[in-house]
Design brief:
The complex is a heterodimer. By secondary structure, chain A is mostly beta strands. Chain A is built from no helices and twelve strands. Classes of the chains: A mainly beta, B mainly beta.
C-alpha cells in the first residue's frame, strides 16, 4: 500500500500568491514524522519543514507552513508569497516509528511559479 | 562546512556491468542512507548504514550492496546492471540529533545520475 499520496502532479501559481500542496499518509504507528523536501532541476533534495505526530502546533519555517490534520492523515504544505525560485518538484515523506530509519516518499508535485 | 558529497556526478554503463557510487556524509554525521529515484518518481529507500553495518534495507535485490568505512563514507555497488537501474542515486546523511530542531533530518547530496544502455 502507498504510504504517501500526493495527488497533484503539477501546479501553476502566480508570483507572490500562496499555493497549497496536498499530502496524505497511511500508517498505523502512533509515533511518526512527516517531512517536505524541495527538489530543483539540479537534483538535490532540500529539506523544508518537519512535523512530528505528537506536535500540537502546525510547523512553520519562514514562508513554509504545514497544515497538519492528524485525524484525516493529511500534511499539506503551504508556500506563501511564491517566488520564481520556488519552481521545483516538492516531495512529502514520512518516517514511521523510532525503529524505522527510512523515509518513504510520495510521487511529488511539480510547482511552476509564473511572473 | 561541507555538505553531503557524491561521486561521480554522471555515469554511463552497459547492461551486465558493475558500478560503484561513493558518498561522503556531512561533517558530524555517522549514518548514510541510499535512495534510488527513477525519472518522474519519488526516491525509493535502498538501505542505511550505521557503525559500518547495514541497519535497514528496502525492497531491493541482492545485486545492490553497500559498505560504510570507518570515516563514515559509504559506497553503493550494483552488480549485473539492468536497464531499469537507470536512475538518480541519492545519498543522505544524518546523525543522532541533527537538523535545526534536533529531529531526525536527512541531508541529501546532489546525486549520481546512472544511465544503463
Amino acid at each position: 500500500a502507498q504510504k504517501i499520496t500526493q495527488t497533484q502532479p503539477g501546479m501553476f501559481v502566480q508570483e507572490k500568491e500562496a499555493v497549497t500542496l496536498d499530502c496524505t499518509y497511511d500508517t498505523s504507528d502512533q509515533s511518526y514524522g512527516l517531512f517536505w523536501y524541495k527538489q530543483p532541476s539540479s537534483g538535490e533534495m532540500i529539506f523544508l519543514i518537519y512535523q512530528g505526530s505528537y506536535d500540537e502546533q502546525n510547523a512553520t519555517e519562514g514562508r513554509y507552513s504545514l497544515n497538519f490534520q492528524k485525524a484525516r492523515k493529511s500534511a499539506n504544505l503551504v508556500i506563501s508569497a511564491s517566488q520564481l525560485g520556488d519552481s521545483a518538484m516538492y516531495f512529502c515523506a514520512m518516517r514511521e516509528g523510532p525503529n524505522d530509519y527510512k523515509l518513504s516518499f510520495g510521487a511529488g508535485t511539480t510547482v511552476t511559479v509564473r511572473a | 562546512d561541507a555538505g553531503v558529497t557524491q561521486s561521480p556526478t554522471h555515469l554511463i554503463k552497459t547492461r551486465g556491468q558493475q558500478v560503484t557510487l561513493r558518498c561522503s556524509p556531512k561533517s558530524g554525521h555517522d549514518t548514510v542512507s541510499w535512495y534510488q529515484q527513477a525519472l518522474g518518481q519519488g526516491p525509493q529507500f535502498i538501505f542505511q548504514y550505521y557503525e559500518e553495518e547495514e541497519r535497514q534495507r528496502g525492497n531491493f535485490p541482492d545485486r545492490f550492496s553497500g559498505h560504510q568505512f570507518p570515516n563514515y563514507s559509504s559506497e553503493l555497488n550494483v552488480n549485473a546492471l539492468l536497464l531499469g537501474d537507470s536512475a538518480l542515486y541519492l545519498c543522505a546523511s544524518s546523525g543522532t540529533a541533527t537538523g535545526t530542531s534536533g529531529i531526525y533530518e536527512q541531508y541529501f547530496g546532489p546525486g549520481t545520475r546512472l544511465t544503463v544502455t
